[in-house]
TrEMBL record, chain A:
The keyword Transmembrane helix applies. Residues 42-298 form the Protein kinase domain. It comes from Streptantibioticus ferralitis. This is Protein kinase domain-containing protein. InterPro entries: Kinase-like_dom_sf, Prot_kinase_dom. Residues 319-358, 621-641 are annotated as: Disordered. The chain crosses the membrane at residues 364-383. Keywords: Membrane, Transmembrane, Transmembrane helix. Residues 623-640 have a biased composition (Basic and acidic residues).
From TrEMBL, chain B:
Residues 14-255 form the VWFA domain. It comes from Streptantibioticus ferralitis. SUPFAM superfamilies: vWA-like. InterPro entries: VWF_A (IPR002035), vWFA_dom_sf (IPR036465). This is VWA domain-containing protein.
């Protein structure tokens, strides 16, 4: 950005100015503008004439009845007030009577002049210039060749006025050059004007794109900056003056240019408009067109000013000047030499396809042809006349020479170039005259592409949905797996409490049984009082190893019946299971013994106060705690596993999405490129049609050149070098 | 280079406005004097059309640098023009300028220059009225715009690419709009791909945002989605925004949150400048 001196300001829009202008007694305080009547649109709102930097309103003063153009700025322009002051000061010094025509417009820069919203902004109050824009004027006057020719002179005079005072407008173009009723020019829009006092600053704009040299940059802000646009306008006016049809042929209705536009300057050899001017039958038009073409890429300060003396129609000095293509290769008319400094860095402005229009520079072959020609014509004739040669051999050398010159002519670079040129032109004409085929083909391809795109998008949606479905399935699977595992674990956990109780009971029962057993061991038979069992029997019992209650577990009575006598045998069941029959101990005594033992058991059990020791309890409980902890670990693990699975699924989804959207983005980029290519092709087809005129003109020109390069001309050239 | 085509009468471009007309647009937004979102959006459109007309006005009248469509989406999707233009899609700007549905007289308080305020009456042309009824079929609206854009690129292959400006409260009811948005910007002229800009009017709060380069400061996912859908500003628009004091970067997008979108019109570089000043 240019170093914006002065504080930056946001400016109102054209619409906001237009709204403010609905109440001029409120928005203005300048006596001439307060209450002034604006020109209105069809819908009765103030009518704007807008450009890139401002909107201009026509206001008729209520006080004086004078009409003004009030320019309201829509963009911040660095140092605007200072610039206008400098411009104003400079213009005031120009003596109106010394100017070629009254092109100078009076203006006054009024800071804080208009209230929009809550703030005041500057305006440029100008006298209303009663005139029409150059393009509108040409629309109605291009048939009046004399008037157009006069205007061309007026224009070159105006340009000369500017040069004489070291001023440059910066944006010479059809909207800023107005034509008054008397055919003189008015210059408006001084926003970008250069005056010597502004030397060293940068420009505020680069001018209308269809009038500028491709070489113009921001730093081009000096008295040379109008040079290129001046040539462009001058060429247009001169050309239309010479041939009114050029206006219809090259100027598209409503086109924001005169005859040539930005593309023509940027790439003259590809221009579809230049050829009609370069190959025009009028020498002035050709020369000026060639001049503009060759100036296209040159630095602005290397450009010559317009020819200062008005070139008076109809006899143009250039028309009689040097031939179009001089032998030394220069294409400049002689009056231009001296205006044009030597150029080194101009990019190729030459049209590489255009063939030369005459033969230059004889080759050895041409010289040979030239030497052979008289020899083969005259020598045999003389020899023949002298009777040395049989007349029937006469055609032989003639044919050979004819062939030689034919070959020499054909191999000349000029004729080769011409043939190539004509072939290319013929092809272009074919394209231009058969646009339907090309258009249909393009349309078909477009449709095909569109339906492929639609399919691709449907496929994309399907793939996205599939991705999502799979993701949901995976997440669901992870969750249900976890829930199953959890249920199994929970079952185990809830049975643990019962098992713990059972284990405790078991441990307690074991301890009690041990106590009772101990007591039984202590219950000695020897000291017991047992009905009917005396010392002797006790001794017998002891002999059988039964001396304490612990030594037996019960009795068994077996009834036998032998010989009509029922008798009962008593067996004592020893600990370990052996049964013994002890003499003297019958059923009654056995019962006594067993009852004693039972009594001992009951007594022992009732004496038993045992509870589980806390150590034992601890050991049992801790075992269960361990198992419980193990279960909750399993639970956590199941959760973690599920989480991992979910995360993996998420990652897969994510990856899939990234992949799909990358694919989509790539496909979209391709689609954009493809569509751009389609548009370019449509354009080419369109252009080739618009081109038809210039192709035809070029073909006509090529035919003309063909005559200039004919065999006869070649023979003359071979002989004379011209 | 893309986005350098001259916008001219011989090479015009098209602007398609998409206007959210769903029921949710009856919700109020704004501080002291809350306004219905539908009113905010209708005002924005009417102002944009006025600005465009003024911008393209020349001595002989408004020039057809643009063809303009205003498409509403709510209970239905279709032209939102009222009055003489009812039912029409792309209309040449000169016709738009001459045919507002009506011109309202609105009163405005302005400073009287002596420290006080005075009431002033201004004419306000209207092309559409606020409507709020139905869902938010943003996908369908974007598809509608796409057909207009596709037709345009075929008809004017050399033009500055079509511009679609979507004004909405952001809550699409017929699915994620991102893809439909991408389909619009996949169309192109020889000068570049179509542009999609979004104006988000929302009651979600947060400060207004104009042409941000990330969605970090946006208050909700709707705003983020709209931001993602919006085209990056072409370089000349960026440098214009920068010259107007906006902070911009390579990734600045055509997105505005609860702020004025009329500045978009200022971005449109009509025709004739050789190059933007940098
Ligand atoms: N003093 C005037 N009298 C009559 N018409 C004027 C006057 N000044 C400007 N105009 C008209 O207003 C148009 C725009 O004015 P001007 O060129 O000054 O604005 P701008 O914003 O600088 O435009 P541009 O884009 O052409 O530089 C002109 O083309 C011309 O038709």
């Amino acid at each position: 950005m240019a170093a914006a001196a002065g504080p930056f300001r946001q400016f109102p829009t054209g619409g906001e100015y237009s709204e403010a202008m609905q109440n001029t007694h409120l928005c203005f305080r300048h006596p001439e503008l307060k209450g002034a009547v604006p020109e209105l649109t069809k819908i009765h709102t103030p009518k704007a004439i807008s450009g890139a930097f401002a909107s201009v309103f026509s206001l008729t003063s209520a006080a004086s009845g004078r009409r003004y153009a009030v320019k309201c700025f829509t963009r911040h322009i660095p140092d605007q007030e200072m610039r206008y002051e400098a411009i104003s000061k400079q213009l005031v010094t120009l003596d109106s009577t010394a100017l070629s025509q009254p092109w100078k417009m009076g203006f006054e820069y009024l800071p804080d002049a208009i209230l929009v919203g809550a703030e005041r902004y500057p305006v440029l109050k100008m006298e209303w210039v009663e005139a029409v824009t150059l393009s509108a004027w040409l629309d109605t006057h291009h048939h009046d060749s004399a008037a157009v020719a006069r205007l061309a002179d007026r224009f070159s005079e105006l340009a000369a006025d500017l040069v004489a005072h070291d001023i440059a407008h910066g944006d010479l173009q059809h909207g800023n050059l107005l034509v008054a009723d008397d055919g003189t020019l008015r210059l408006v829009d001084y926003d970008g004007m250069y005056v010597p006092a502004l030397s060293g600053r940068e420009g505020t704009e680069r001018g209308h794109r269809n009038y500028q040299s491709p070489a113009r940059g921001d730093e081009d802000f000096d008295s040379h900056m109008d040079r290129f646009s001046a040539w462009v306008i001058f060429l247009a006016l001169k050309a239309v003056a010479a041939d009114a049809r050029l206006w219809a042929q090259l100027h598209e209705r409503h086109g924001e240019y005169l005859l040539l536009a930005e593309d023509d300057f940027k790439n003259p050899s590809a221009s579809s408009r230049f050829p009609a001017l370069l190959a025009h039958r009028d020498q002035t038009v050709r020369d000026l067109a060639d001049q503009v073409r060759s100036l296209s890429w040159q630095p602005l300060d290397a450009l010559p000013p317009l020819p200062s003396a008005p070139v008076s129609a109809p006899t143009l000095p250039l028309a009689s000047a040097a031939p179009h293509s001089a032998d030394n290769g220069s294409t400049l008319p002689s009056w231009m030499s001296g205006h044009l400094p030597p150029v080194s860095s101009a990019p190729p402005a030459e049209d590489p396809d255009a063939p030369p229009t005459s033969f230059t520079g004889r080759r050895a072959l041409d010289v040979l042809a030239a030497v052979l020609l008289p020899i083969t014509v005259f020598v045999p004739a003389i020899l023949c006349a002298a009777g040395v040669l049989a007349s029937l051999l006469l055609p032989l050398p003639l044919t050979a020479t004819a062939f030689l010159t034919w070959a020499a002519h054909r191999t000349r670079s000029e004729t080769r170039l011409l043939r190539k040129h004509v072939r290319a032109l013929t092809k272009r004409r074919w394209q231009a005259t058969h646009p339907d085929k090309a258009t249909n083909e393009l349309h078909r391809q477009r449709m095909e592409f569109d339906s492929a795109e639609t399919k691709r998008k449907a496929e994309l949606t399907r793939a996205q949905q599939e991705l999502l479905d799979r993701h949901q399935r995976e997440v669901a699977a992870a969750d249900s797996g976890k829930i199953k595992k959890w249920a199994a674990i929970d079952r185990k956990v809830s049975s643990l409490d019962g098992e713990l109780r059972a284990a405790m009971d078991q441990a307690l029962a074991t301890e009690r049984a041990t106590f009772v057993q101990e007591e039984l061991r202590k219950a000695r038979i020897a000291t017991a009082r047992l009905q009917g069992i005396g010392e002797k029997l006790k001794g017998s019992l002891a002999m059988y190893g039964i001396s304490a209650a612990a030594d037996f577990t019960g009795i068994r009575l077996i009834s036998t019946n032998s010989g009509g006598y029922a008798s009962t045998t008593a067996l004592i069941v020893k600990t370990g299971g052996r049964e013994v029959n002890i003499k003297g101990i019958g059923a009654a005594k056995a019962r006594t013994l067993d009852a004693w033992r039972q009594a001992q058991i009951s007594a022992a059990q009732s004496r038993c106060t045992i509870r589980l020791s806390s150590a034992r309890r601890q050991s049992i409980t801790s075992d269960f705690e361990r198992r419980r902890a193990q279960h909750s670990d399993e639970r956590r693990k199941a959760e973690a596993d599920a989480a991992t699975q979910r995360a993996q699924a998420q990652q897969r989804l994510q990856d899939g999405r990234v992949r799909l959207s990358a694919q989509d983005a790539a496909a979209l980029r391709l689609a954009q490129q493809q569509r751009q290519a389609f548009a370019q092709r449509a354009l080419q087809i369109q252009e080739s049609q618009a081109d038809l005129d210039s192709v035809n003109a070029s073909l006509a020109e090529a035919r003309r050149i063909r005559r200039a390069l004919s065999h006869a001309r070649y023979l003359r050239f071979a002989l004379t070098g011209h | 280079m893309a986005y350098t085509a001259e916008i001219s009468r011989t090479n015009p471009t098209c602007i398609v406005f998409l206007v959210d007309q769903s029921t949710s647009m009856t919700d109020p937004i704004g501080g002291e004097v809350p306004q219905k979102k539908a009113d905010v959006v209708a005002d924005a459109i009417n102002r944009l059309l006025t600005e465009l007309s003024v911008k393209c006005a020349k001595e002989e009248g408004v020039r057809d640098y643009f063809h303009v469509a205003v498409v509403g989406y709510g209970a239905t999707v279709g032209s939102a023009f009222a009055g003489a233009l009812t039912g029409r899609d792309l209309v040449p700007l000169s016709e738009v300028a001459d045919n507002p549905a009506r011109v309202d007289d609105r009163t405005k308080k302005v400073p009287d220059g002596a420290g006080g305020l005075v009431e002033m009456s201004v004419k306000f042309p209207l092309w559409m009225d606020p409507v709020a009824h139905g869902g938010t079929p943003m996908n369908r609206a974007l598809k509608y715009a796409e057909t207009l854009v596709a037709g345009w690129t075929e008809r004017y292959p050399a033009s500055f690419p079509p511009i679609v400006i979507n004004l909405t409260d952001g809550e699409s009811t017929d699915g994620d709009p991102v893809e439909a948005a991408n389909s619009i910007t996949a169309h192109a002229t020889a000068d570049g791909t179509a542009l999609l800009f979004n104006l988000h009017v929302s009651a979600s709060g947060g400060s207004p945002v104009s042409f941000p380069d990330s969605d970090a400061d946006l208050p909700d996912s709707h705003a983020s989605t709209l931001f993602q859908m919006s085209s990056p500003l072409p370089s000349h628009m960026r440098s214009y925004a920068a010259s107007q004091g906006q902070k911009v970067s390579e990734t600045t997008r055509g997105f505005v949150y609860n702020a004025d979108i009329t500045s978009v019109v200022q971005f449109l570089d009509i025709g004739t400048r050789a190059t933007e000043l940098r």
